[in-house]
Amino acid sequence: MPEKDEKFVERFADVLVRSGWPRMSARIFASLMSAPSGQLTAAELSRRLGVGPSAISNGAKMLRTLSLVDVTRRSDRQIVYEVRPDAWMEAVASQHDGLRTLESILAEGAQAVDDPRATQRLIETADFFAFLRAELPALVERWRATR
Does the predicted model carry a pTM greater than 0.85? Predict the structure, then answer.
């Protein structure tokens, strides 16, 4: 991989790590995003990132869970990782259930705590997640309309 690509991958990965991503998942995603085809084999990722196959497999689990990356097999021994089309949009659009869960647990917490300040904080946060959940479909549709 050219040095300028390598520097970009590490800079992009650092931004993702600072936002809470595991380092290996961030490095894999940055590598895939910068690959011309958007896909790399497990062996190519191992070579590019200087890590073993198990590190690639473990790092890619989160990316699959977030629906950012698809995994296919070309053969018994060749695994291919590929950035999904509209990966970020799909990942954000799929957050509906997670937002509902957060909203629900926060509302339950607001009823469970005795302190009015904590109750207010929990209700406000639950309301925020309810707002996001309600706005998300329209936001996704507006994004699709711009494409």
Answer: no
